[in-house]
UniProtKB/TrEMBL annotation:
This is POTE1 protein. It comes from the Eukaryota. GO terms for biological process: regulation of telomere maintenance via telomerase; telomere capping. InterPro entries: POT1, POT1_C_insert. It comes from Ciccaba nigrolineata. One of its GO terms (molecular function) is G-rich strand telomeric DNA binding. The gene is Pot1. Residues 76-218 form the Protection of telomeres protein 1 C-terminal insertion domain. GO terms for cellular component: nuclear telomere cap complex.
């Protein structure tokens, strides 16, 4: 694994960190005094790397505004779901021409009302593995249960006129064990009925990029980012790894 490999690299006296076998070694001092871009081969020791924990290397990146964000934790998502459950489902927004709705009341003391809207294709429900559904009033545990069965899950809440997405601090879409987020700064969320255009396609694929586009969401991408400090006795060079 990468973490143990990095630790081994720190223990070695000298580590070859780049390939370019056709190039001679260049001292870091020379590289630091050169204009970029250039291609070099170096021999250097890894002095430090950040972050120390690999899970902290995963960020969310907006390709439009170039912002980098921390990946929200599950507690924040759960809090937003609990807040959305306070809004009672609007019965007039159930069982439309493009989705079927099922509502029930939980048996616990809170007696939450949960509604699941199953999106139809050609007026028929698809197989679970091909189905997109929307859930109102669900808990984090209930949402994750649905993602194990259905292709796509979108948490929503009722307004007077239409269903709407939750706060973009929460994922706007869940597919399997992947949470998809939108950029708060660059997104202009549209009403949920915009999804009906995909449902009307000959073979709805429910791809996250297409769903984000019709909902006015600027999709954030998961990126892997690290900083390495390299030394060779002539200078110290910071190297950054940024990859999708």
């Amino acid at each position: 694994d990468l973490e143990s490999h990095l630790q081994r690299c720190q223990q070695l006296p000298v580590t070859v960190l780049t390939d370019h076998q056709d190039l001679n070694n260049t001292e870091l001092k020379t590289i630091l005094n050169s204009m970029a871009p250039q291609q070099y081969r170096i021999r250097a020791k890894l002095r430090t790397y950040k972050p120390q924990k690999l899970y902290q290397s995963i960020k969310l990146h907006c390709s439009k505004c170039k912002s980098l964000q921390e990946v929200p934790d599950g507690d924040g998502f759960d809090f937003i779901l609990q807040g959305s459950a306070i809004t009672a489902p609007n019965a007039e927004l159930q069982n439309t021409s493009w989705y079927d709705s099922v509502m029930w009341t939980t048996q616990d003391e809170k007696q939450r009302k949960i509604v699941i809207h199953f999106v139809k294709h050609d007026e028929m429900l698809q197989q679970p593995e091909d189905t997109l559904l929307m859930i109102e009033g669900g808990t984090l545990k209930e949402v994750w249960k649905l993602t194990k069965i259905f292709k796509c899950v979108i948490p929503v809440r009722s307004t007077e006129d239409d269903l709407e997405l939750l706060d973009l601090s929460a994922p706007f879409l869940l597919q399997g064990n992947i949470k998809y987020y939108g950029c708060k700064q660059c997104s202009t969320p549209k009403p949920i009925k915009s999804l009906s255009s995909i449902a009307a396609e000959q073979r709805p694929s429910w791809e996250p990029t297409e769903i984000a586009q019709v909902l006015g969401i600027e999709l954030l991408q998961y990126v892997f980012i690290m900083k390495f400090t390299l030394i060779d006795g002539t200078g110290a060079l910071n190297a950054y790894l940024f990859d999708y």
